[in-house]
Predict the 3D structure of the following.
Amino acid sequence: MAGNKKGILERLAEGVVIGDGGYVFALEKRGYVKAGPWTPEATVEHPEAVSQLTREFLRAGADVLQAFTFYASDDKLENRGNMAYNKYTGSAINEAACQIVKRVAAEGDALTLGGLSQTPSYLSGLGKEAVQAEFKKQVQVFVKHDLDFVLCEYFEHVEEIEWAIEACKQFGKPVAATMCIGPHGDLHGVSAGQCAVRMARAGADIVGLNCHFDPFVTLDTIKVMKAALQDEGLDRHLMTQPLGLHTPDAGRQGFIDLPEFPFALEPRICTRWDMQKYAREAFEAGVRYIGGCCGFEPYHIRAVAEELAPERGRLPAASDKHDMWAQGLKMHTKPWVRARASRTYWEQLKPASGRPYSACMARPDGWGVTAGHETLKQHAKVTSEDEQNKALEFLKNENEK
Ligand SMILES: [Zn+2]
């Protein structure tokens, strides 16, 4: 019964909650999202594609389904020649997203979540009032559709996420807050620990990290955040939704700085066994909201759910086609593949990349400026050739520093 569903804070107090994976990246690969703007107009254009991916996360064990509202602020939908705003507006995209997620969540016992993220208005220095106006337009739609709680995610400046949390708190729903930062802290040099403290003080009920870094870098960072919260006597639930990609070589802005971003990251994809390791280590570190972001596909979420099956007392529906620790391979025709039906084999395996001239690490772009810098001012018109050349020259100089 939907009316008797336990809320997110109740579920977190009782045990572990599994989030879903990355919609933007998965739907880009499937042909429904454009890399560059990364906006979610697929909710209007291809609702069946969004529904299907949402359903796959539910089947994989997600306890929370996130409405596909990433970057659906009006200022982002019209940024740099993106035509989405002219066709639909943020409200129309968010309305469709809420309808989809409510419908799919009703197929199981999942909670629904509305997310908002960083804005071009902040990068351009338009100030608190203009930025919060973008957030409020989005949250109003989530509240109208009675989504269970709100997530401020993918912020790289603690000041902007404080504004987002403050704007969300007015609506009376639980608020989760995750920044896309790593061990270096935010882009204005605020430490990861201090970011956690400021998110908690701004009113976030759940504090953590998403995107930009791999599961293990993210866990190193959440431990720093946990210690800082404890030092300040702040008791908050912890949440991690990292990349489904390995990024040990990433710089301050995570995978955005890697030369392979966003079209050649495939050799970095985490295996399902990496995700079981992530789920166990996150649980042991005290994280109780464990999900994923870009690169995290439904089978990765299934791996998290399988690892945490002892704690949750159940396996997800998708495990009907996946026996734990490769046991299904016992049915294989080839004896050397049958021999791989063991936990030890897959836990000890070091997968090869299959790319003879490929390095195992890349050199990240050095990009030493952030919000407030001239090169990061945004506008609605298409990026010009002159701007493109300036960006290339700027990057060359930055990388030579
Ligand atoms: Zn992401």
Observations:
- The mean pLDDT is 94.
- The longest helix spans residues 89-105.
- The CA atoms of residues 59 and 317 lie 5 Å apart.
- The two ends are 60 Å apart (CA to CA).
